[in-house]
Write a structure and sequence with these properties.
about 240 residues, alpha/beta, Spore Coat Polysaccharide Biosynthesis Protein SpsA, Chain A, eight-stranded mixed sheet, 8 helices, 8 strands, about 40% helix
Length: about 240
């Protein structure tokens, strides 16, 4: 079974459609999933909509946070409570297309980790592409990670996640998990896809998030290269 985390912060508009689309795609592709909505301190009607969905569908659950803890905490909660063997995150704002979702679900067991990267990078504009290219290049230089999109959607092995410790609170959690899993000996597979804009646009680029990314990156270098070098000493294995 694949556990799908849907992090939601004030997503009362798109949330129901996102969950219904996951159910539709998983059913049509005959993939067994559980959906875990994390209402991360929403101040709108997100929590009530999530509860209504749990009443309608037996494979939908919800975790309510009293305040906004960030994506890292959402991952921590879902990793502890998930029932599946694999974990995939589908944002509550609806920026993953049904085609890409189907690709991820159908290839979830192709390797330990299955990455999705986007061909239509022009959707994000010049500035976001510069930041993304620089960010990916840093992971290549410092960690020898040869993936197209280190911070993109990825199917993750839940059992292995439970063996590792993570500290990132916000968006850098995805890259931290990827680096630690890959250097723990996990195999990986990559799938090309096409991004679509979320219903309310992206809030990934902000001063707070950039600061957290920088501090988390420095901490990751220290852990992978120094304090945890005996633990994270394996080379990532690409599955063709």
């Amino acid at each position: 079974m694949i556990s799908i985390m849907v992090p939601a912060l004030n997503e009362e508009g798109p949330l129901e459609d996102v969950v219904l689309e996951i159910i539709k795609v998983s059913s049509s592709n005959d993939v067994n999933v559980e959906i875990i909505i994390v209402n991360d301190g929403s101040t709108d009607d997100t929590g009530n909509i999530a509860e209504a969905l749990t009443s309608r569908f037996s494979n939908v659950r919800v975790i309510h946070n009293s305040k906004n803890f960030g994506l890292g905490k959402c991952f921590e909660q879902v990793i502890l409570n998930a029932k599946g063997e694999k974990l995939l995150t589908v944002p509550g704002d609806g920026d993953m297309s049904s085609v890409d979702l189907a690709l991820m679900l159908n290839n979830a067991y192709k390797a330990d980790m299955v990455f999705l990267y986007f061909l239509n990078k022009e959707m994000r504009g010049r500035f976001r592409n510069i930041l993304s290219t620089l960010y990916n290049s840093l992971f290549f230089v410092f960690f020898s990670i040869y993936v197209q999109y280190i911070n993109g959607p990825c199917v993750l092995p839940i059992k292995k996640l439970r063996e590792l410790d993570f500290y990132s609170n916000r968006f850098s959690i995805a890259a931290e998990m990827a680096v630690k899993l890959l250097h723990s000996g996990c195999s990986f597979y990559e799938i090309p896809g096409y991004m679509q804009k979320g219903a309310q646009g992206s809030t990934a680029v902000s001063y707070k998030n950039l600061l957290e990314v920088c501090t988390s990156f420095i901490r990751l270098i220290v852990e992978i290269k120094i304090t945890g070098r005996n633990k994270y000493n394996k080379s990532p294995e690409r599955v063709q």
